[in-house]
Amino acid sequence: MQKNILHKNSSRIYLVLGIFSILIYTACNNSINNNSNNSNSKNPAVEQKVSLIKLLLGNGNNLFRSIDLGVDFKTVLNAEKKIPDENDTDDISYTMPIDTIQPDSVNEPFDSINYYKITYYFDKEKLNEIDEDIYLESDSSASLLLDRLTEYFSSKYGDYASQNDSRVWSVSHKSKKEWISLSDQSEEYDNGKLLLVLYSEEY
Fold first, then answer.
1. Domain locations in the chain?
2. Per-residue confidence band for 47, with pLDDT thresholds at 50, 70 and 90
3. How many Cβ atoms sit within 10 Å of the Cβ of residue 24?
4. In which order are the strands placed within the sheet that holds 161-163?
5. What does pTM read for this prediction?
6. Cα 200 from chain centroid?
7. What's the angle, vertex CA 62, arms to CA 132 and CA 142, rounded to 5?
8. Cβ neighbours of residue 194 under 8 Å, at least 6 residues apart?
9. How far apart are CA 130 and CA 19, in angstroms?
10. Which residues make Cβ contacts (< 8 Å) with residue 89, sequence separation at least 6?
11. Beta pairing partners, 199
């Protein structure tokens, strides 16, 4: 009789220990998963919403961002999400952060190292030139981005021609001749600096 009682008590102890072990395993596993999720949330690569190329140039459906040369003043104003820095009769300019994690935060304050400035120029109320000045923290960063932009444009428009330290692509759009010029101006600045110009003499 006493042996049966001891056997039952031992079974209960093993059962309790088994349940306790399962609870400990589950708690530890959840803790590991939570730490992994927290680590991913701090990783810019995970949080990145748009690529740097898309941030600077748009999704590729238009010549530049959501704009094509030849459009009017109002079209440009409606295309950009930010209030312009300058809004004159002949040009509109914007200064924006290089932020691929929060690309819509164009109206928030940003650092003075990594940013870009877009200027839209008009002739007879038609957009005929776009300048994008890209400022980066170092000339090495500028060189890497130069290669990425070159690869992007070459994949769309073919090989570039070298012209006065610039890489130039020729584009035909709606029977109009357009050009894209890309140059590295880092030597003229303390930090990295690229200049992208899109223009046409037919608007």
1. 2-42, 49-199
2. low
3. 10
4. 86-87, 91-97, 115-123, 126-136, 192-199, 176-184, 166-173, 161-163
5. 0.76
6. 26
7. 30
8. 133, 134, 136, 142, 145, 146, 149, 182, 183, 184, 185, 186
9. 69
10. 122
11. 129, 179
